[in-house]
Amino acid sequence: MAAEPSELRRVEDFRRVAERTLSGAAWGYYSNGDGDNQTLRDNCESFKRYRVLPRVLRDVSTIDTSVTVLGSTLDFPVAISPTAHHKMAHPDGEKATARAAASANTGMALSLFANHSLEEVAEAAPQGTRWFNFVLFKDPKRNRELLDRAAKAGYKAVFLTVDQPRFEYLKQITTSKGKDKTHMFYSTPNLVFPGTPPYGTEEYRSHLYSALKQPMTWDDVDWVKKNTSLPVVLKGILTAEDAQEAVRHGADAVLVSNHGGRQLDGVPATIDVLADIVRAVGGEAEVYLDGGVRTGTDVLKALALGARCVFIGRPALWGLACNGEKGLLQLLNVLKEELVYTMARTGCAKIADINPTLVVHENYYMSPRRNNSTIDGYQ
């Protein structure tokens, strides 16, 4: 059901419309987190604990939001996180996502668990900036085939998910509100190889569980680096120690991510660990963030704490649910307009002007020892 554009003014508006538009199964699959959803909630709530410090009397008559990510210039630093099963949000699935991202001149990371193949998505938006997100199979031939297909189809980098040591959810898939459209869960052409059982069968699910490499190790990162010429991004880094290890193993970038609170409840919100990871990397790799970004002000906060770009997962699906490609493009434009607004009021004419002095944690104002200077934005 297409929503009226006039009722979609903030990302929260898209969320509300998506909830009433999607099937119960789709909404449950997209929305649920692990455990008690503590991390899921904290991803958003933690952003609210950082305060923006306006800078006045700056020339912001022209504002440039462009940024370079892995050598590709994007119109603004908000890209699409890899998420599975976009057809549950809209019949055009990841093809609509790719077209919207290309129209906004931003990037999209395609999930291995997408409902369209690498090639189909590339054909849908040939001029777009696309990256491929995957996990490893036990069979190296399958991994090489996927890496080769991604490079041949014009994907600019590979995102290796590193925070899923086991795939227990494949053993028992449950939803919170029913079972309609659950067949979409199995429509994953990038996972099909000779001998793969048909979609939607117990045999397919069992085959997939046994075929995926569980767990992966740092040796697997080395293997990926040796078997592709594309930049390699490690998705799922939450500690400074792992960020430094990623650099030692040749990662070109790290995506600070807790999988949207879906993998392990109780881990930190991504915005809270970002500054530590940026310091640990020390400029030797690009640093991105996903999880909890809902406003243009959130984007600026993450950039001020050191992220080069932020990624959105659930909000992109909400945009698709509202009006397919057009809905997602509208949501991206909302975030861009909010970012421009916030940049103007913090005296930033370009992305490079955004720095740690613009953001402070709320604890600063609660501490009896605070002084009149700003801090680095992380406590």
Automatic annotation (TrEMBL):
One of its GO terms (biological process) is fatty acid alpha-oxidation. It catalyses: 2-hydroxyoctanoate + O2 = 2-oxooctanoate + H2O2; a (2S)-2-hydroxycarboxylate + O2 = a 2-oxocarboxylate + H2O2. GO terms for cellular component: peroxisomal matrix. It is an enzyme of class 1 (oxidoreductase). InterPro entries: Aldolase_TIM, Alpha-hydoxy_acid_DH_FMN, FMN-dep_DH, FMN_HAD, FMN_hydac_DH_AS. FMN binds at P82, T83, A84, S111, T161, K235, S257, D290, G291, G292, V293, R294, G313, R314. The active site is at H259. Keywords: Flavoprotein, FMN, Oxidoreductase. Coiled coil: none annotated. SUPFAM superfamilies: FMN-linked oxidoreductases (SSF51395). Residues 3-364 form the FMN hydroxy acid dehydrogenase domain. Its cofactor is FMN. This is (S)-2-hydroxy-acid oxidase. It comes from Branchiostoma lanceolatum (Common lancelet). The lineage of its organism: Eukaryota, Metazoa, Chordata, Cephalochordata, Leptocardii.
